[in-house]
């Protein structure tokens, strides 16, 4: 199958590659760029584990082809914290509130919540639950995750999301 | 309470400390099996049966093999003869394993049955090639409905001669005819639970890496039991166990599904040494829902006799379970447990059970958190039905029958000897947290306004931490390096249960070390001793024993060296903050770092020991209370409050305890309201995506409130297992809440799930 060249920015770094047109953005990130923090839980757009930011919007990278991200700015879980390994406000809140257990769905939640709080720094509890309903977690029963979003919203209001 | 405040140092057990797992998992630096990438690695994909039962007449692999990049297509004839022995360490060689050929041989027995294994240079190519494998099937009559399996003409396994796998009756129901005939009240129902499944967000997967030069086989596995995978594989392939190494870093949820070695995994073990390169298989969601195993799917005729005061006189359960075509071994054991635990935490003077396990042409049964939770579902639902019949409040009926502390130990009629539990205390605590009387008043007011609220109660007692066989032993090694770093090595098998943090907390306390000085290595069979992994609510309570035994040896050495170095008696030394100091003069001391260097630089200080359980199980109990509102027009159930009061003894980390309870509880809620691993009448699965198999999301789940009662167990630290209870207590609490809300309509709920359509149908009846 013929390959197509793509150029994009991933976590602030320009990347160029050739890919088969059928390769999903998720597989491209995981396999070609070896950014394995983006996880695949269903590969049909329901579980949200593969959520990344594409030009700032939270998208499911299993539902997008890599070629569709040509020219885009992509942020994965590896690009959410500070480069020295420090946690973002959302990541810290997940740790403080026991918002993760096995950690497989966690990157998708962290990315989704980061985008949500950037756009909604003052969410109500129902808004938080609605926003989280696009990501599935099987370990936590969502208790610690909801608490983490509430904690991180405080940081969002202070403009300290990253 | 053996380990409390042994020395003056910081106490980490009992504190909500940050998890050591979190930094890597939050930043995308975890290592799940699909993150393992080895040079030259090949990728596997299964060809699976599209038919519930059929004879395989021909398999043509030529088109698949002709595709560039495809290396192998294996069928049963290639892989199955490689099987040497096939049994689990935790079950034993003597227990009969039901037939589990790696690839389907001659006949497919469920939709999803693996027929061929394609190996190619990429997953994409392997999937392309799998579509090119031509299989001719001759459809055969399938046994789909387990309730008809026993008398069906078709046999799932011809060689077995029957669709009944095994059955067991302790006492026939007729033995209690007189008690039931003379009882003031009798409640009797048949209660059904549908199929649902663990559904970890990470599916199953393996990377098998064989070196033909050294004969070493390394398996990277998504598993709860790395040491079992190693021993099972060594026997399966007839390889010396020391040649097999299993490495498990992060496992993305298991909930029982990743305890046993399944057929797909056997195929990878068999193919790995043949393909000449590392071989990866990671199942996709469809495969997980098709072939990773189902759970629940069972029913029972249950009955209870009561005297005029509502005291239980006898309880009997006649239980039938669907095990699918290829259950993990050994199906009768968890089925029998449904019988033995049916009396629950109540005063039940007489009782018995009969259980039956059946084959069908559906996916095989696999363990799921609280594999025998049907005992609680059936009992608690029946108690509510009985209370309504007797015009007694369901809380009052339970209160009259719950075991009191002064009655312990108490042997239930099936021989289970309960002790160190507090069912009445958790019950009263949970009711007080709700303010039960106030809720009843609100419910009455709401009803007069045409709104239907309900409250559901459920009590259970479960046997955690099995202490028999290989489950009853767990090792640890602790090493203090000359750098001062302390590393604790345990068998592992974490799949989200925070056992890394638990072990670090316990080790820091046991040695008097700072928690930040302690690391842990788990899940690598090359550097850890055999342990049975995460199953049976055992990890925390068993590993606590291993750490205690090992740290005790190391403490003695630390104390001896420190006493010698500081010139005082051993009794005058205390250990705290990674330092040995003189009790009377805390400024005089020596750090663990210096002690390790003094002891044997560069090796440092090291000890290994193994804990052996001192009881056959550790009992743990809880009460679940749930309130809901049911929209009688749409059938929608909204959960309002959810309260769990549990007694898991002292908590090592309350965050972890509450996280385990919440996770299990939401799985139980999902099992009642949303999840159904359904088949159509022809045996076709109809829930193979997350658009059909509905998991609960944050929008459907209420905030969970926790109450704790602390009755120490006889085990190390007084700890108990708490991993499974949420999934046991939640289903009956939710069912009873819905039934209570609908009681003005005379609705009786005896079948699950309770989706909107089922509720509307109940109301229309």
TrEMBL record, chain A:
The keyword Iron-sulfur applies. It holds the Pfam family Fer2. The keyword Secreted does not apply. Residues 4-80 form the 2Fe-2S ferredoxin-type domain. One of its GO terms (molecular function) is oxidoreductase activity. Keywords: 2Fe-2S, Iron, Iron-sulfur, Metal-binding, Oxidoreductase. This is (2Fe-2S)-binding protein. InterPro entries: 2Fe-2S-bd (IPR002888), 2Fe-2S-bd_dom_sf (IPR036884), 2Fe-2S_ferredoxin-like_sf (IPR036010), 2Fe-2S_ferredoxin-type (IPR001041), 2Fe2S_fd_BS (IPR006058), Beta-grasp_dom_sf (IPR012675), Diverse_Oxidoreductases (IPR051452). It comes from the Bacteria.
Automatic annotation (TrEMBL), chain B:
GO terms for molecular function: iron ion binding; oxidoreductase activity. Residues 27-141 form the Aldehyde oxidase/xanthine dehydrogenase a/b hammerhead domain. The keyword Oxidoreductase applies. InterPro entries: Ald_Oxase/Xan_DH_a/b (IPR000674), Ald_Oxase/Xan_DH_a/b_sf (IPR036856), Ald_Oxase/xanthine_DH-like (IPR016208), AldOxase/xan_DH_MoCoBD1 (IPR008274), AldOxase/xan_DH_MoCoBD2 (IPR046867), AldOxase/xan_DH_Mopterin-bd_sf (IPR037165). It holds the Pfam family Ald_Xan_dh_C. The keyword Translocase does not apply. Transmembrane segments: none annotated. Keywords: Molybdenum, Oxidoreductase. This is Xanthine dehydrogenase family protein molybdopterin-binding subunit.
């Amino acid at each position: 199958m013929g390959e197509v060249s793509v150029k994009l920015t991933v976590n602030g770094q320009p990347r160029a590659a050739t890919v088969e047109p059928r390769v999903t953005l998720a597989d491209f990130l995981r396999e070609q760029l070896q950014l394995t923090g983006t996880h695949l839980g269903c590969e049909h757009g329901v579980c949200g584990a593969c959520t990344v930011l594409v030009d700032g919007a939270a998208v499911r990278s299993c539902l997008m082809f890599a070629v569709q991200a040509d020219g885009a700015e992509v942020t994965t879980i590896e690009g959410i914290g500070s480069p020295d390994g420090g946690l973002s406000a959302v990541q810290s809140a997940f740790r403080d509130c026991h918002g993760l257990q096995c950690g497989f769905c966690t990157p998708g939640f962290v990315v989704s919540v980061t985008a949500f709080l950037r756009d909604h720094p003052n969410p109500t509890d129902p808004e938080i639950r609605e926003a989280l309903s696009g990501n599935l977690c099987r370990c936590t029963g969502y208790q610690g995750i909801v608490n983490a979003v509430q904690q991180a919203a405080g940081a969002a209001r202070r403009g300290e999301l990253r | 309470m053996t380990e409390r405040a042994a020395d003056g140092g910081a106490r980490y057990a009992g504190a909500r400390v940050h998890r050591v797992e979190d930094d890597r998992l939050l930043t995308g630096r975890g290592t799940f099996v699909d993150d393992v990438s080895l040079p030259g690695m090949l990728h596997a994909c299964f060809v699976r049966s599209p038919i519930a039962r059929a004879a395989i007449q021909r398999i043509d692999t030529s088109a698949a093999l002709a595709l560039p990049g495809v290396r192998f297509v294996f069928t049963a004839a290639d892989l199955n003869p490689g099987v040497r022995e096939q049994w689990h360490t935790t079950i034993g060689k003597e227990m009969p394993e039901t037939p589990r050929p790696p690839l389907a041989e001659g006949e497919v027995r469920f939709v999803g049955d693996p027929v061929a294994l394609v190996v190619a240079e990429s997953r994409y190519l392997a999937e392309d090639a799998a579509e090119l494998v031509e299989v001719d099937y001759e459809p055969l009559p399938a046994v789909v409905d387990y309730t008809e399996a026993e008398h069906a003409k078709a046999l799932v396994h011809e060689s077995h001669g029957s669709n009944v796998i095994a059955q067991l009756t302790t006492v026939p129901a007729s033995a209690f005819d007189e008690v039931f005939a003379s009882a003031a009240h009798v409640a009797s129902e048949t209660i059904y639970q549908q199929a649902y499944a663990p559904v970890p967000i990470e599916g199953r997967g393996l990377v098998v890496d064989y070196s033909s030069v050294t004969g070493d086989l390394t398996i990277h596995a998504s598993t709860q039991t790395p040491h079992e995978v190693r021993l099972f594989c060594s026997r399966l392939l007839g390889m010396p166990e020391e040649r097999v190494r299993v490495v498990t870093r992060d496992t993305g949820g298991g909930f029982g599904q990743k305890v046993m070695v399944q057929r797909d995994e056997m195929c990878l073990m068999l193919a790995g040494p043949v393909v000449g390169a590392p071989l990866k298989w990671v199942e996709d969601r469809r495969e997980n829902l098709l072939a990773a195993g189902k759970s629940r799917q069972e029913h029972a005729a249950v009955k209870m006799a009561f005297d005029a005061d509502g005291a239980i006189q006898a309880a009997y359960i006649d239980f039938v379970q669907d095990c699918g075509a290829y259950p993990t071994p050994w199906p009768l054991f968890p089925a029998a447990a449904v019988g033995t635990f049916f009396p629950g935490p109540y005063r039940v003077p007489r009782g018995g059970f009969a259980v039956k396990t059946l084959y069908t042409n559906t996916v095989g049964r696999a363990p799921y958190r609280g594999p025998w939770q049907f005992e609680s579902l059936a009992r608690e639902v029946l108690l509510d039905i009985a209370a309504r019949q007797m015009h007694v409040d369901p809380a009052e009926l339970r209160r009259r029958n719950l075991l009191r502390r002064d009655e312990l130990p108490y042997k239930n009629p099936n021989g289970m000897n309960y002790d160190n539990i507090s069912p009445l205390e958790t019950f009263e605590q949970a009711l007080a947290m709700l303010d039960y009387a106030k809720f009843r008043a609100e419910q009455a007011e709401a009803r007069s306004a045409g709104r239907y609220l309900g409250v559901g109660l459920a009590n259970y007692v479960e046997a955690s931490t099995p202490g028999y066989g290989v489950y009853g032993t767990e090792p640890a090694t602790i090493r203090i390096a000359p750098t001062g770093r302390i590393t604790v090595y345990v068998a592992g098998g974490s799949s989200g249960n925070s056992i890394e943090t638990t072990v670090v907390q316990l080790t820091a306390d046991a040695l008097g070390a700072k928690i930040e000085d302690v690391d842990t290595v788990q899940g690598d069979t090359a550097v850890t001793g055999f342990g049975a992994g995460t199953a049976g609510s055992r990890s925390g309570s068993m590993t606590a024993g291993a750490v205690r035994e090992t740290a005790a040896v190391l403490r003695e050495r630390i104390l001896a060296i420190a006493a010698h170095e500081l010139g005082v008696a051993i009794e005058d030394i205390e250990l705290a903050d990674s330092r040995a100091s003189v009790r009377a003069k805390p400024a005089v001391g020596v750090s663990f770092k210096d002690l390790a260097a003094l002891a044997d630089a560069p090796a440092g200080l090291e000890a290994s020991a193994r804990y052996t359980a001192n009881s056959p199980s550790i009992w743990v109990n809880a009460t679940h209370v749930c309130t809901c509102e049911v929209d009688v027009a749409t059938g929608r159930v909204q959960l309002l409050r959810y309260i769990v009061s549990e007694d898991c003894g002292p908590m090592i980390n309350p965050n972890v305890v509450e996280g385990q309870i919440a996770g299990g509880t939401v799985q139980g809620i999902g099992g009642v309201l949303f999840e159904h691993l359904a088949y159509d009448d022809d045996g076709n699965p109809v829930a193979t995506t997350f658009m059909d198999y509905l998991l609960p999301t944050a929008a459907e789940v209420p905030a969970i409130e926790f109450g704790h009662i602390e009755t120490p167990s006889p085990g190390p630290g007084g700890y108990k297992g708490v991993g499974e209870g949420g999934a046991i207590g939640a289903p009956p609490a939710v069912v009873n809440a819905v039934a209570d809300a609908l009681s003005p309509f005379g609705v009786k709920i005896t079948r699950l799930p309770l989706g909107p359509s089922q509720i509307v149908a109940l109301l229309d009846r």
